[in-house]
């Protein structure tokens, strides 16, 4: 009987449901519900596809910001303006893993909060304390340490001290003490320490911009860098025996930054051979609003090649007819183009290029001897000197790039090491002396090992053999076979097709700047003009410096840009990392 009653009740309920479903009001409700589901799905699909730019491995949203206080370019990796920072992050910031899934961690909100709060400090106008607190419910002092960002103001102060003669023409404090330790207060009161720091350059000290031992750099790098600095910074720039070579950076259409650096390396060689102080003039790529006070000058991006005193003296002599007649001053027009581009390499250090370490791999073989070895060695030394110290502006560009690429990973690491109740529970501890004067000298964190890859295609085919992206990745796989923990790639390229192909390599994490790239084959000059001067200068320099700091590098030696990156790495402690190239330099 019980089963019969149950079936009867089911029939009654089914009939009632059928009658309700057949009624007009109910049909309207069902249709409306289904329409709402469709519209919501469509809206979410559009929202998650707009404003993001992808990394295979990490897809990260386009954040928009104007010029940062660190003078960063919004076109490089767009970061958010102060006024709309929080709202835009909430609208657009979304991270997914390599499989396209949303993160499932319970700490997502804390990670997002910390990432956004760090980013706010990089905005165009750093928010006031009250504004910051209102937005994030935090004080700036309550934010944990940012391992991937550099204190640009402090770095610029330290570097200026290391690049300037002190009173009475004394040498900069190039002791065996590093970085901020030279500013440790106790050394100013201890007579023995002060005497040690004030003594002339000793054999044990070397230029603080050189990393690693002699064996980890090109031969004689530390001595050469020291000698170039001394040559370029005479004690008395008004000494009548001091001669000058004043030259603007090359500005012919079609000349990239690499060609400009190669040309200036030739002029520096001429200056050393003729015992002249090189003074650089107009740098067209710095002629944009981001450079502000140093507009049109190399000093927008890197420390100048000589002291301000020598620059003032040289520009004073430019208007002196007698100085030109006596040869006290010369300009770029005093030399033929060939004399500049194929300048005689200074022989004051002998021929150290004759024993360069064979660490360049082409087609599976190391290149021990090749043509123009002297030029390769010299350009590396010249570019390293010209780029020896970054300005606060360049440091800021790198901060923006690292935060955009690695900020969320850094936040996860930091939050894993502090109280799980942050930001509800905040423990503010003053910086200890070891943090301020010792650990502050460590380079900003990036996910390591990191492989930098510069893929040059497009109009470069008229100068060298270009190869497909797949061949670059074959070389990457060779490195990974020996270093299986390698999976991170900083990719620089002007071609959109290269970016598109990264999707075919889901087991690699690709990071790259958010900039419009070439579709099809156009000249580099046309492409750079489409980006504008600021973007076409800032984003390549960021890629260049990231390549220099990476653990490994794959490029094309037929490209001047890759050639110079290789030189910077070989004077930056990276010789034994090797270099895998898809082709030879066109002059070898």
Polypeptide structure, described:
The chain crosses the membrane at residues 28-55. This is Alpha-(1,6)-fucosyltransferase. One of its GO terms (molecular function) is alpha-(1->6)-fucosyltransferase activity. By secondary structure, the chain is an alpha/beta fold. Among the domains are: 106-148 and 394-441, no CATH class; 217-355, no CATH class; 450-581, Rossmann fold (3-Layer(aba) Sandwich). It is 42% helix and 7% strand. The protein contains 21 helices and 12 strands. It has helices at 2-22, 24-49, 85-92, 108-120, 129-136, 152-162, 186-189, 191-198, 221-232, 257-273, 308-317, 321-326, 337-341, 373-386, 392-416, 433-437, 469-482, 496-501, 524-531, 533-549, 560-570, and strands spanning 52-53, 60-61, 243-247, 276-280, 329-331, 360-362, 365-366, 450-455, 488-493, 509-511, 552-555, 579-581. The strands form 3 sheets. Strands 7-6-12-11-8-9-10 form a 7-stranded mixed beta sheet, sandwiched between helices. It has a 3-stranded parallel beta sheet with strand order 4-3-5, sandwiched between helices. Strand 11, helix 21 (560-570) and strand 12 form a beta-alpha-beta unit. It is globular.
List strands and helices in order, with pairings.
Blueprint: H1 2-22, H2 24-49, E1 52-53, E2 60-61, H3 85-92, H4 108-120, H5 129-136, H6 152-162, H7 186-189, H8 191-198, H9 221-232, E3 243-247, H10 257-273, E4 276-280, H11 308-317, H12 321-326, E5 329-331, H13 337-341, E6 360-362, E7 365-366, H14 373-386, H15 392-416, H16 433-437, E8 450-455, H17 469-482, E9 488-493, H18 496-501, E10 509-511, H19 524-531, H20 533-549, E11 552-555, H21 560-570, E12 579-581
Parallel strand pairs: 3-4, 3-5, 6-12, 8-9, 8-11, 9-10, 11-12
Antiparallel strand pairs: 1-2, 6-7
Helix pairs in contact: 4-15, 6-15, 10-14, 14-21, 15-20, 20-21
